[in-house]
Amino acid sequence: MSAPAAVPERPDGSGDLERSVRIGVVTFPGSLDDRDAERAVRLAGGTPVALWHRDPDLHGVDAVVLPGGFSYGDYLRCGAIARFSPVMGPLVERAREGLPVLGICNGFQVLCESHLLPGALTRNDHLHFVCRDQRLRVENAGTAWTGDYRAGQEITVPLKNGEGGYVADERTLDALEAEGRVVFRYVGGNPNGSRRDIAGITNEAGNVVGLMPHPEHAVEALTGPTTDGLSLFTSALKRLVSA
Amino acid sequence: MARVVVDVMLKPEILDPQGQAVQRALPRLGFEGIADVRQGKRFELEVAEPVTDDVLARMRALAETFLANTVIEDFTVRVEEPESATEPEPAVEPGSAAEAAGDGARA
């Protein structure tokens, strides 16, 4: 086996700034996609930093990814126990101050349980686990994680969840729509009964984004259906470099 | 030792696909006439100290912040008296209709 693909160094050294951006990836007991998230950060040109759930220190990272998986076995509710992990204290605090945070699948569930994002994820309406390549429409290209997309652009990334139905009360849903906080919407069929086909949302400030599909599994032609997911990670890097 | 019981149910407006699946299976099993099934969770908290109003308030906070997600779930908190401390009740067959009716009347 060869070593993980390295991003080619640019002769003019223009990738150095991105490489200096450190993006933390939290591992909870039961996280599955932390390594893929780290790999996506590396392929996008950044430096991934492994964060541990019991360590209440973000080690000075510039952004954080909460990865997919089944933290604490999905006991109680998906993400409900992870939300009270030591690492989540400083993370919630920094996220409220503007730290870019991306929650993917179980990470999205943790963000909702932490009240960094409104609503909740519930059992898929058809009760089956879904695993497929999913088309999405980018509805908001203005968040910290979507600047490299165009609004209206369609992308395809893997989706795999049993509890991915996004729910919130009508007032919250109306507010999300009115404020442009629906970031991704399912296209070509709603896979899990999510209200208003919502696949991903953001907070008011646009620094916290959560989505059920897995952009970190669509960053290389060899293993992903597309490389459409890479732009989430390059978006954050660009935002942080120019900040 | 006292027992505090927390019941958590999905809010009425939240779809309960698990309850629906249970309900759909009932006619196959010969149980007719059950119009709806909602599935919930019951937590039994064994509390070492006497359950004062203060303790009960803390249990309520625990239920609100952790055991239930109030975005999608409602919860009730109640103290269950140890059986020896209560008046002897008329004998009830486990799972009988009388017991079910008594349980349903707690709310």
What characterizes the major β-sheet of chain B?
A: 3 strands, antiparallel
N- to C-terminal distance of chain B: 23 Å
Largest sheet of chain A: 9 strands, mixed
Query: Remind me, CATH topology of chain A?
Result: Rossmann fold
Mean pLDDT of chain B: 83
Could you list the spans of chain B in which at least 5 consecutive residues all have pLDDT below 50?
Answer: 96-107
Helical residues, percent of chain A: 10-25%
Largest interface: A-B, 20 and 12 residues
Unreliable stretches of chain A (pLDDT < 50, length at least 5) are none
CATH architectural label of chain A? 3-Layer(aba) Sandwich
Sheet/helix structural class of chain B: alpha+beta
CATH architecture type of chain B: 2-Layer Sandwich
Query: How many runs of DSSP E, i.e. beta strands of chain A?
Result: 11
Spatial extent as radius of gyration of chain B: 17 Å
Head-to-tail CA distance between termini of chain A: 38 Å
CATH superfamily of chain A: Class I glutamine amidotransferase (GATase) domain
Look at the structure and give the CATH class of chain B.
Answer: Alpha Beta
What is the count of DSSP helices of chain A, taking H or I runs of 4+ residues? 6
**Domain count of chain B:** 1
Q: What structural category arises from helix and sheet content of chain A?
A: alpha/beta
Name the strands of the widest sheet of chain A in spatial order: 2-1-3-4-11-10-9-6-7
Key descriptive features of the protein:
A: 243 residues, alpha/beta, 9-stranded mixed sheet, two-stranded antiparallel ribbon, B: 107 residues, alpha+beta, Mth169, Chain: A, 3 helices, 30% helix
Short recap of the structure:
Chain A is α/β, with parallel strands linked by helices. Helices cover 22% and strands 24% of the residues of chain A. Chain A contains 6 helices and 11 strands.
